[in-house]
Design brief:
Elements (H helix, E strand, L loop, with lengths): L9 H5 L1 H9 L2 H14 L10 H20 L12 H24 L8 H4 L8 H29 L9 H25 L3 H14 L15 H5 L2 H15 L5 H25 L3 H4 L1
């Protein structure tokens, strides 16, 4: 059984700096688990970790041919937008969605796949969702390499505004942490979550402005698309990397505030329910 975390005052669970301080106590353990998770994906393969780079490169080439030269699609964000510009914008949106999807899809089975840790008295289960997000973030960072290379080849430079990228990604990381904590807990008690998520992710994908620009969304549907935080993150990431534009700060700070709230809710829910995991499993 887990220690009685229900005795922890609620105020310590909802203050972001308390959450950060608690997780920092296990920083070394989180790093070791994340590293092991990333390396285990390619254990036994000839190219090993290099698959993390080859896969996004192959995807970028495929999207360029299919959407740029066969369907001749355009986002319409640039006056002289080329087929390669669309391919880069599409790739940017897809790698961000894949980051979100990987965290969400793995979450329901986290506790079920780590029953040996659930039954340990002193093991901090709350680091497993952090490890999941960290591993997905590692893949995301690697996936940005071909995106930057493509931008350099197509336009001859990477805008200085690309330095805003870590800032733009912060709300998405907070969202993924909160959702992973919450879904990991739900997955213990409601096994149907694992079957429902793929359907929900398909809806999220088409509502995330990956294959189109938010600026092209009809006015009456715009509130629906804007309510999806992933769509705003994708829009702002494209702006800072591909268009040389800074984030829209009015949108960003609302997104950041919502991300912090989702993280707090997910963390609090997980910490309040994790004591029952061992009994259910």
């Amino acid at each position: 059984m887990q220690p009685a975390d229900k005795t922890i005052p609620l105020i310590q669970l909802v203050l972001p700096w308390r959450i950060a301080a608690h997780l920092s106590e296990y920083a070394t353990l989180i790093w070791q688990f994340t590293k092991r998770d990333v390396l285990s994906r390619y254990r036994g393969s000839y190219l090993g970790i290099f698959w993390s780079l080859l896969r996004p490169l192959a995807l970028l080439a495929m999207y360029t041919v299919v959407f740029g030269f066969i369907f001749e699609s355009k986002l319409g964000n640039q006056i002289n937008e080329t087929k390669l510009d669309f391919a880069l914008a599409l790739f940017c949106g897809l790698i961000l969605f894949e980051f979100f999807a990987e965290c969400t899809v793995r979450a329901p089975m986290l506790m079920l796949n780590n029953v040996n840790y659930v039954t340990k008295v002193v093991f901090p289960l709350e680091i497993l969702p952090v490890m999941t997000v960290g591993a997905a973030l590692t893949q995301l960072v690697i996936s940005f390499v071909p995106l930057f290379i493509g931008q350099q080849i197509v336009h001859g430079l990477i805008p200085i505004t690309a330095l805003y990228l870590p800032v733009v990604l912060l709300p998405l990381i907070l969202y993924c942490l909160g959702i992973t904590w919450m879904v990991a807990s739900f997955g213990v008690f409601i096994r149907d979550v694992n079957s429902i998520l793929p359907v929900l992710l398909q809806i999220v994908m088409y509502a995330s402005a990956i294959f189109y620009s938010i600026s092209k969304v009809p006015v009456h549907l715009l509130p629906i698309v804007r309510s999806n935080p992933l769509a705003t993150v994708i829009d702002q990431a494209r702006a800072v990397i591909l268009l040389g534009m800074p984030p829209v700060w009015s949108q960003y700070f609302w997104l950041l505030a919502a991300g912090i709230i989702v993280m707090i809710v997910g963390y609090t829910f997980f910490m309040r329910t994790k004591n029952a995991f061992a009994d259910v499993l």
